[in-house]
Amino acid sequence: MLSIKKLVPLKIKQYLLLLRQYIHDLNMYRNHSSIIKKNTYEKNESEITLRYHAIEKGFLHNPIRYRFAKKKVSDLIKLLKYIDFGKYTHKIQIQSALLNLCTYYEYHISENVDISDYYIKSDYDLFRLLLVSEEKPINYHTIDSFFKHRNSDFYNFSISRKSVRNFTGERIEVETIREVIELANHAPSVCNRQPVNVHLVDNKPLIDKILDIQGGLKGYSDQLSQIILVTSDRNYYYTLGERNQFYIDGGIYLMNLLYALHFYGIGTCPAHWGLPFQADEKVRKLVNLKDSEQIICLIAIGVPQEDFPTTLSLRRPSEENLFIHN
Hints:
Layout: H1 4-32, H2 41-58, H3 70-80, H4 85-88, H5 92-110, H6 121-130, E1 138-142, H7 143-146, H8 154-160, H9 174-184, E2 196-201, H10 204-214, E3 226-233, H11 245-263, E4 267-271, H12 277-286, E5 293-302, E6 307-311, H13 318-321
Antiparallel strand pairs: 1-6, 2-3, 3-5, 4-5
Helix pairs in contact: 2-3, 2-5, 5-6, 9-11, 10-12
């Protein structure tokens, strides 16, 4: 049995080793994210994606607001002008940006709305010349067409799941949610520790307070009557190498949960939770979460409207992200 004299230095050593690991994390994020420098194609692509996605979400509104996302459009045009089109035009995120910008321009021209103060015709002509895709940034569905592959093969089932932002306000029965969670709980986790908790919130004033903290579902929350908070509990991890494992296990569970909700015919929209720790603390005051629980994601859930749109959100082909090492 270790004496107190031996135990205290051991704890200090573990603390210092943990601190060193987090300093390494800090340096890696500082050096390779775009938080400090935007000096690689990948960082610029991330900035481009952020802006075109904001534009395509604007097409979901009915009616579409004239001159919406003006600053996002202006910024996106500037960002694209720094891209080496000869080298990167074929990239799916660049094509998605071009598609949304061209659709944006064409929509306003068709409505006789002047946008020349921030989007001129010569820019549109260039983007149209570079655009290969002839798809539209928005797809339209009925409830039946959206969920028709619920019992299909996995290929068609998985690609049929899209983020839904147009809900009726009707609540999903708790018993149905319980069945969804029973299915989602088959997600793998490190050493089968199963650290994930699911918090269903169906109090509308409380939901609105949480959404104000999250900030990413503005304009779509009026008919949103339920949300899910997916959390991962740090209590289940014990080695230096597992310091970020709760995010990995939480992410695996999250995708399984999204599939389970889709299987049960429930519309979903996972909302970004890459927020400062203060956001978690604010939510912790509103919802009974343990200090050890890290919020992984907020999911808007509900019954979709009878007819509703979803963003196209083109996906990368395997040529862009599969690397084979022989």
